[in-house]
Amino acid sequence: MKAGIFKIGFPTEIIQEGGVKVLVPKLKAFVKLPSEYAPSKAPVFYNPVMELNRDIAVLALQAYQRTLNREISVCEPLAGCGLRSIRFAREVKGVKTVVVNDINVKAFQLANYNVHMNELSERVVVKNEDANFLLGGYGAPRKRFDAIDMDPFGPPVPYLDSAIRAIRNGGLLILTATDMAPLCGVHPKACIRKYGGKPLRTEYCHELAVRLLAGSLAMTAAKHDMGINIVFSHSADHYIRIYSTLSYGAKKADENIKNMGYIIHCMKCSHREPIKGLSPVKLPRKCSECNSKIDFAGPLWLGKIFEENFCLLIEEEVKKRAYKNGKKIRKILSLIRNEVDAPVTYYVLDKICDELALPVPPLKSFIGVLRKKGFKAFPTHFNPTGVRTDASATFAKELLRTVVASREQQVLNKFKSKMEGTR
Ligand SMILES: C[S@@+](CC[C@H](N)C(=O)[O-])C[C@H]1O[C@@H](n2cnc3c(N)ncnc32)[C@H](O)[C@@H]1O
Ligand SMILES: [Zn+2]
Questions:
Q1: Beta strand pairing status for 95-101 and 124-127?
Q2: Residue 1: pLDDT band by 50, 70, 90 thresholds?
Q3: Which ligand is nearest to the CA of 393?
Q4: 200-242 confidence digits (pLDDT tens)
Q5: Do 302 and 365 reside in the same domain of the chain?
Q6: pLDDT, tens digit, for every residue of 303-360?
Q7: Domains in the chain: how many in total?
Q8: DSSP-assigned states of every residue in 149-213
Q9: DSSP 3-state helix, strand, coil percentages of the chain (rounded to 5)?
Q10: Which of 86, 153, 182, 323 could form a disulfide with 191 if both were Cys (CB 3.0 to 4.6 A apart)?
Q11: Ligand sitting nearest the alpha carbon of 88
């Protein structure tokens, strides 16, 4: 198949992303109103906004390949036009084969065309199956993949069992979830149904979303006597992603279950606390800070959701590439590397200041004061005004008041001395 003579029956255009060029649906041709979400209107899914997501996937896959130091096999069971897989095959050194799949026949045709256009037919196979059916065919020991990138609309949970069966011992499973309304507590019943854990509408709901997805992965892997090891995760725009290696061993699965638990949260004073263990009877009913009724999220994953070494490997990879999103990615990676060992959950300055009717001070100054007082304090990539700290909610609020008051005093003093100077 040659570029230029391909007829798919809908408007297309060639775009460049990362190190490749591919043919994609011309999104403008499919929207009638500016409010319409173009990627879901097109006959084949393509979302330019997910470039950063794909960039990080390329970098992380390269980082993972370097840890193995051998050729790897990759599968993208929900691939759309094939852009992500083509980038894996072209941009990641050591990728031996990629299996690209989509249930949509037009997506299959377009992905096939893109694979040919990029001269990758020898290493990249395109399939047109249901993702679970496809993965079912790769469950036998010698057929399994080194890495699977599962990038669905909504939750990845319908594909978890078959992806876990099709991953090699030590393989990397990458999961996207875009159903943020259930995961962030807008539709709690849907979250309990899909992920087996209760969400909460709190300021740190994006972290809860990662932990709910991770919990669902850990419990599903445990059924297969496999343990998970989350090396990286991130939240951006309207989705979350987790990157986890999986290894065989009932003991590993048992150890993982010890990382399951709950986060109790007081809606009145914002006090929160992680509680490990799966038995809900142990959960307190009243807030230890203000005695109000306490709510909870979970069961969810309370283990680590990032690994410093893996972040460093990804950071090394981004330095080697001239990505349009390079600066943004470096910022995300440096924030994540610094929050690796930080306390679970975060406060959001905007929200607390809103509640207390205070102006929002710079995050840096609040973090500096918390540290001076002997607390741990870190920014988080989850929220630009978020702070992870071991200080209690009551103390954090009191301290915030004093930070704002002392900033106001400083401004007043400056103004006074300026006035005195002009006399
Ligand atoms: C979010 S899009 C994938 C985007 C792509 N990974 C990327 O990076 O551009 C999800 C894709 O899953 C496909 N899909 C939905 N259900 C499927 C199923 N059961 N089996 C295989 N593909 C499916 C859709 O046709 C759609 O192309
Ligand atoms: Zn309370």
A1: parallel
A2: very low
A3: 2
A4: 999 999 999 999 999 999 999 999 999 999 999 999 989 999 9
A5: no
A6: 999 999 999 999 999 999 999 999 999 999 999 999 999 999 999 999 999 999 999 9
A7: 2
A8: EE--SS-SGGGHHHHHHTEEEEEEEEEEE--HHHHTTSSHHHHHHHHSSB---STTHHHHHHHHH
A9: 45, 25, 30
A10: 182
A11: 1
Q: Answer with the one of 252, 281, 308 that is the final residue of a domain.
A: 308
**How remote is the CA of residue 126 from the centroid of ligand 2, in Å?**
54
Last residue of a domain, one of 286, 308, 330: 308
Beta carbons within 10 angstroms of residue 197's beta carbon = 25
Which of 20, 53, 102, 159 for a ligand 1 pocket mutation test, highest count of atoms within 8 Å of Cβ? 102
Quick one: tokens of 206? 């994006």
- Residue 66 CA to ligand 2 center (angstroms) comes to 47
- Whether this prediction's pTM lies above 0.90 is answered by yes
CATH number at residue 287: 3.40.50.150
Which of the four pLDDT bands, split at 50, 70 and 90, describes residue 280? low
Ligand 1 site residues, Cβ closer than 6 angstroms: 45, 50, 54, 77-80, 83-84, 101-104, 107, 130-131, 151-153
Nearest CA to ligand 1 atom 26: 80
Residues 251 and 373 in one domain: no
